Q: What sequence folds into this?
């Protein structure tokens, strides 16, 4: 046994080596060289700079590799920065102190083993007397010692082989196979498949085994495994599975060996999924001659195959780990546990994905496996058996505790070796006589208690799983139940402490996570125990013996705690080693009081907690910044937020209010001691706000800049509390970024400020900047930036915001739309600029419209621009259309998380105000000192300086208008016009002249194209390559309805009425456009140079075919052609406000009609296929003499055709042809007219309209809106034989008004007595069944020209 002096000397050496490793880590030296350098420096950090190249060359690192000359030179260069790191550390880094806790020690470093922490805890709290297991609680607690081993295994250069083995037997067929494949695909990610340091192999087995050829993506792998080629079938042979898996693993190890990677540097993990026993050995034949499975022989064969497989893995020399996940009632738990290092039982297929993402997901992404070797002093013993292997987490860390039994007074050194592939990689020790005794009600006290309960639960599981569960007496079962109850009671206090936000206990998140794991184990044990206890009436569910055995085997295994629990526990332990926080001033106490925990910053920091500003509606973008993030007023402690939000899964709302917050945002600096706690919590806070939800050092901290910029832009005017919060947020962001090093002498603050400077000076950097909020936030951290420079940055941010807004609005727009908008912006310099004073977003801005200017002519526009440039060079303001487009763009919601236009003025003003505030106190660093001093000192001078800064910041408000963001309309015009044509380089010509040249170029190209592809007949012009892009290049974009809602209603009406008719989609679209236009709707092209008419040739052909085939109507002659042209002008999408376009389109339709008639058009000149192009010198638009008798349809809308009933029940149109309504056949029970129409009622539409006075009209409008919509729909549908009963609640006046309305709509109406009241009914004569049979043949086309009601709904165009 070593003496006390020897132990103290050993402890001192261990602490010196730990300090050396800390310094080496900070200068970027890899961990495998730490032991060698610590030895050469004698364990003293100050001697690291004396290590030379000659000292290093030829020595061996921790992996046994010789240090070459280039490596030695690189190490020496890194060691030169040791002095700078130790002496010139910036004051705001506040580096963490070395961990020193009672009962904790670590081994000295050697060439091959790094140090690990070994801590011993012994509980001093009195017990509760005798336990239900016959032991004394006081005696057990005094004898039990919790030995915790923590360390990080050097993982430099390590590789991994992962073999996934899937049971493909017939019992897996169906939903189970799909669940397994989908669950495995959920954890074997594309990143894992593409990792060059990880070899992934898939093996499927049934009676035989085969390897799956892996595709490149997980989606392809999932589709492959679910294909018929891998459909489950056959029996189960573990021997076949293990033999093929062994060959695959040996092959992959050989591949790594060719890369000079030895087997000791490769971790092998094998995951086996099965739902049944081995069935490979057959016995006697059954009744039908089929050989039956010999279960005992099959089990022996499986065990033999497993032993051979494990021995083969051992001989490879690589650390290996075999895990079996079994489900279903047919598998053998004992066999699975025998074959595997870790056995998982999945009792329900639905939770397979959850289990894979949890325990097995950790294995998939772990850094490998390790094993423990303990050397105990006399008198000490293991309380439970050590597991053969333990998994490391993703970073190669080990965090596991072991229970020792050592009576009080036992002395000696507990030594721990952590081995990987038989080599010691970590070593540590601790003196048993100096075991740490936690204080009552401390974090360590509660954690000791929770882990002690977990130990007792494993004892219960062990007793039940040893085959004694079914044979236990009722008294013994009751004693086990009492032990589970004791465990619950023992956890009650800890659960209450961890669930109370106002209690001052460190590490409550860690306690809650650990409690969740232990309580889950207790619930599973309680459920399993109930299967043996017939007197248990609380749960009547029964499971099979296989499931019970599996649950108990899983429950008695002592595995490391979950990664989340281990990480939280390490964080709580690290917080205990930090120096005490500084006391707060009266102002600091008041400002930092958290309403949820009822603690201020000092009290929370004393608990290892910290304060953060509240945040809501957080949606991080994929690269950087946020799509949305709302800064909320007030602070909240991190532990309180984690508790109240259930780990961030639900919002935290105020009492009696619906609004709340969902995230912790920017931290509060408060004091250096408080900020030390912030740094321990910051990775957990930043992870939910980072892209992908993963914390990345150096990248996630940048998100705070975006939040700071959003706080700067919040509100046109800052309140006192908002101004104070802004200063504290800027101070905290500066501290966080200053603690993140990006080089030997640079921090993230320097990088952010440099990016803001480049944004200000370099146009290319301005366009490449991702998040404008982050640029604004970085400007608040810049030292020495005067007000003029910050004002220029505010102008640059507003201009770049406008450029991006215009570019976003024009996304997908063609050249014609961009040219038109640029023309609308570059108007005369004396144009009205009152639109700049409209509050944003403008209430009547609407959507961006790139058409509608009646004075825009693409032929004359270049000359207009040149004339304006000659009279007012370089000066321009938007025309009316341009101003409307700017307001629409500035009122639209921004994309990509960019600042809203309403905040541009506020950002510009706040930057200037912040510059004045920093100038008042002497710079940014002086401002931080003022803010920090006010938090700990109530001296008046600090308060006076702070108040002056507040006045300056609060004076920096601005209205939410464009005038507040830009100095004048000319600047807005220049930025927006340049954004319309980003590739335009006007040079000395100016924007107007450059636009004029571009417009002439585009017009000439369009003119050439529409003349190259003219209208020559009934066929669509043959393009060289017909595609969406080529059509847009020739004719531009199609026209769209100006009222989309009304157009959708028209589409719905047509669809509802033609649902029984056999119509093509193009015919329905044409009828919907016709119905929309007849009701006053219009279409508009995106720009005047767009001329593509959707369905021009096809719709004309549809009309031609319908007249000839269905109606039997003549299509030849001038009259028919003129009527067809008039009809097509209604059915096509074009802007009917353009007189020249009407004339040109009329000639184009006439030409297509003549082509359909088969006329000889060889002598006719072709028509240019553009409505805006009119050939010079032509007699009429279109460049040809119109045929004899042809008349251009008049400009006004064609009048509504009057209809009269014909003898056969059809409708005679005023145009002279009969439209085919469904013919009314004689009814079997015809009703007299007196029944259909009341005798006292006026007969006929005109008479009813004359009788409808204002009072009756008011009564009609007073009917329930839903009833009126039903009436209108009934009148529109007019289905033969249909009836509609009106409610009994109608008044007499309302019934009379309905009678008149029905008479005007031509609907039958009948009023009669019903149960002492009057009942009104609307009717349509005829037989519904016969009418349905003739609906396809007899259809009323002219009915669509009538005025119908507005039907709510949407339709497909």
A:
């Amino acid at each position: 046994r070593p003496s006390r002096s020897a132990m103290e000397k050993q402890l001192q050496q261990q602490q010196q080596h730990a300090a050396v490793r800390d310094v080496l880590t900070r200068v970027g030296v890899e961990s495998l060289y730490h032991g060698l350098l610590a030895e050469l420096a004698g364990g003293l950090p100050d001697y690291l700079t004396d290590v030379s190249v000659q000292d290093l060359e030829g020595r061996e690192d921790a992996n046994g590799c010789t240090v070459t000359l280039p490596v030695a030179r690189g190490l020496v260069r890194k060691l030169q920065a040791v002095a700078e790191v130790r002496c010139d550390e910036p004051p705001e880094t506040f580096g963490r102190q070395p961990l020193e806790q009672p009962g904790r020690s670590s081994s000295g470093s050697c060439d091959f083993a790094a140090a690990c922490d070994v801590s011993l805890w012994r509980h001093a709290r009195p017990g509760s007397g005798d336990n239900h297991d016959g032991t004394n609680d006081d005696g057990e607690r005094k004898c039990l010692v919790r030995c915790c081993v923590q360390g990080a295994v050097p993982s430099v250069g390590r590789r991994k082989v992962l073999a996934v083995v899937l049971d493909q037997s017939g019992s897996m067929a169906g939903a189970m196979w799909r669940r397994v494949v989908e669950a495995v695909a959920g954890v074997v990610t594309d990143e894992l498949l593409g990792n060059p340091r990880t070899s992934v192999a898939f093996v499927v087995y049934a009676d035989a085994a085969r390897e799956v050829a892996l595709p490149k993506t997980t989606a392809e792998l999932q589709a492959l495994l679910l294909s018929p080629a891998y459909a489950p079938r056959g029996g189960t042979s573990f021997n076949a599975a293990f033999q093929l898996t062994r060959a695959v693993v040996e092959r992959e190890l050989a591949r790594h060996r060719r890369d000079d990677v030895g087997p000791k540097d490769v971790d092998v993990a094998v995951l086996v999924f099965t739902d049944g026993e081995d069935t490979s050995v057959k016995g006697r034949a059954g009744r039908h001659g089929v050989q039956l499975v010999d279960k005992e022989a099959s089990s022996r064969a499986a065990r033999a195959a497993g032993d051979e497989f494990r021995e083969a893995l051992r001989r490879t020399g690589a650390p290996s780990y075999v895990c079996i996940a079994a489900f279903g009632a047919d598998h053998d738990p004992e066999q699975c546990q025998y074959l595997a290092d870790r056995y998982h039982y999945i009792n329900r297929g639905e939770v397979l994905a959850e289990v894979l993402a949890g325990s097995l997901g950790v294995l998939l992404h772990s850094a490998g496996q390790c094993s423990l070797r303990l050397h105990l002093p006399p008198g000490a013993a293991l309380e439970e058996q050590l597991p053969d292997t333990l998994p490391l987490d993703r970073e190669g860390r080990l965090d596991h505790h072991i229970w020792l039994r050592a009576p009080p007074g036992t002395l000696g050194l507990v030594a721990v070796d952590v081995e990987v592939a038989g080599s010691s990689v970590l070593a540590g020790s601790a003196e048993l006589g100096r075991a740490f005794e936690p204080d009552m009600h401390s974090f360590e006290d509660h954690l000791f208690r929770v882990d002690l309960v977990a130990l007792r639960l494993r004892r219960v599981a062990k007793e039940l799983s040893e085959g004694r569960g079914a044979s236990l007496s009722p008294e013994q079962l009751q004693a086990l139940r009492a032990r589970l109850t004791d465990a619950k009671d023992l956890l009650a206090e800890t659960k209450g402490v961890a669930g109370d936000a106002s209690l001052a206990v460190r590490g409550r998140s860690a306690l809650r996570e650990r409690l969740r794991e232990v309580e889950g184990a207790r619930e599973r044990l309680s459920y399993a125990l109930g299967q043996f206890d017939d007197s248990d009436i609380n749960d009547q569910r029964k499971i099979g013996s296989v499931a019970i055995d599996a649950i108990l085997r899983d429950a008695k295994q002592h595995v490391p705690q979950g990664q989340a629990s281990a990480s939280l526990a390490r964080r709580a332990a690290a917080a205990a080693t930090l120096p005490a926080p500084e006391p707060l001033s009266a102002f600091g106490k008041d400002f930092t009081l958290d309403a949820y925990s009822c603690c201020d910053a000092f009290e929370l920091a004393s608990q290892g907690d910290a304060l953060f500003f509240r945040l809501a509606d957080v949606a991080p973008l994929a690269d950087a910044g946020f799509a949305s993030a709302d800064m909320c007023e007030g602070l909240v402690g991190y532990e309180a937020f984690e508790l109240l939000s259930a780990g961030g899964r639900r919002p935290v709302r105020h009492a009696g209010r619906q609004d709340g917050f969902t995230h912790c945002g920017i931290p509060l600096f408060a004091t250096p001691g408080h900020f030390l706690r912030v740094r321990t919590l910051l990775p957990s806070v930043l992870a939910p706000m980072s892209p992908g939800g993963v914390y990345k050092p150096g990248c996630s901290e940048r998100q705070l800049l975006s939040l700071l910029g959003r706080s700067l832009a919040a509100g046109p005017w800052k309140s006192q509390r908002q101004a104070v919060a802004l200063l504290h947020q800027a101070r905290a962001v500066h501290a966080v970024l200053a603690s993140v090093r990006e080089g030997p002498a640079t921090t993230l603050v320097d990088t952010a400020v440099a990016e803001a400077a480049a944004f200000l000076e370099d146009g290319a950097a301005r366009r490449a900047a991702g998040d404008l909020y982050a640029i604004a936030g970085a400007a608040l951290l810049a030292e020495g930036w005067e007000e003029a420079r910050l004002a220029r940055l505010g102008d640059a941010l507003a201009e770049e915001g406008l450029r991006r807004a215009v570019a976003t609005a024009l996304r997908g727009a063609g050249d014609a739309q961009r040219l038109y908008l640029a023309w609308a912006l570059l108007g005369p310099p004396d144009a009205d600029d009152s639109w700049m004073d409209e509050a944003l977003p403008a209430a009547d801005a609407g959507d961006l419209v790139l058409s509608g200017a009646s004075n825009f002519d693409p032929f004359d526009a270049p000359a207009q621009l040149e004339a304006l440039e000659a009279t007012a060079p370089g000066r321009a303001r938007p025309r009316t259309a341009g101003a409307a487009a700017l307001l629409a763009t500035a009122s639209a919601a921004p994309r990509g998380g960019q600042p809203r236009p309403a905040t541009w003025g506020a950002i510009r003003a706040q930057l200037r105000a912040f510059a004045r505030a920093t100038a008042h106190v002497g710079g940014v660093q002086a401002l931080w000192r003022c803010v920090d001093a006010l938090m700990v000192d109530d001296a008046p001078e600090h308060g006076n300086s702070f108040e002056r800064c507040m006045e300056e910041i609060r004076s920096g408000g601005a209205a939410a208008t464009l005038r507040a963001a830009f100095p004048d309309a000319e600047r807005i015009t220049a930025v927006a016009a340049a954004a319309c044509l980003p590739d335009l380089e006007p040079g000395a010509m100016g924007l107007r002249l450059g636009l004029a040249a571009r417009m002439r170029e585009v017009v000439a190209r369009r003119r050439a194209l529409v003349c190259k592809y003219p209208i020559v007949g009934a066929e669509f012009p043959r393009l060289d390559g017909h595609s969406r892009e080529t059509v847009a290049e020739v004719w531009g974009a199609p026209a769209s309805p100006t009222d989309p809602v009304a157009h959708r209603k028209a589409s719905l009406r047509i669809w509802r009425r033609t649902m029984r008719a056999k119509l093509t989609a193009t015919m329905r679209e044409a009828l919907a456009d016709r119905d929309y236009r007849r009701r006053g709707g219009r279409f508009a092209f995106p720009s005047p140079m767009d001329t593509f008419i959707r369905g021009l040739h096809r719709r004309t052909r549809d009309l031609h075919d319908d007249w000839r085939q269905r109606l039997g109507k003549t299509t030849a002659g001038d009259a028919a052609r003129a009527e067809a042209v008039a009809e097509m002008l209604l059915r096509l999408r074009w802007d009917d406000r353009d007189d020249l376009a009407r004339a040109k389109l009329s000639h184009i339709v006439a030409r297509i009609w003549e082509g359909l008639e088969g006329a000889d058009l060889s002598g006719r000149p072709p028509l240019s296929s553009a409505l805006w192009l009119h050939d010079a010198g032509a007699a009429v638009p279109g460049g040809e003499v119109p045929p004899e008798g042809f008349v251009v349809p008049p400009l006004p809308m064609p009048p509504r055709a009057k209809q009269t009933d014909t003898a056969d029940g059809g409708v005679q149109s005023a145009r002279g042809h009969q439209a085919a309504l469904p013919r009314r056949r004689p009814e079997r029970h015809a009703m007299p007219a007196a029944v259909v129409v009341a005798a006292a009622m006026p007969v006929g539409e005109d008479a009813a309209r004359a009788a409808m006075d204002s009072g009756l009209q008011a009564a009609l409008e007073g009917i329930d809106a839903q009833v009126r919509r039903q009436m209108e729909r009934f009148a529109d549908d007019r289905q033969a034989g249909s009836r509609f009963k009106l409610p009994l609640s109608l008044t007499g006046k309302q019934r009379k008004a309905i009678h008149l309305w029905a008479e005007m709509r031509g609907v039958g109406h009948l009023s009669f007595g019903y149960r002492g009241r009057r009942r009104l009914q609307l009717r349509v004569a005829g037989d519904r069944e016969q009418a349905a049979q003739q609906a396809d043949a007899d259809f009323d086309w002219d009915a669509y020209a009538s005025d119908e009601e507005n039907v709510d709904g949407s339709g497909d165009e």
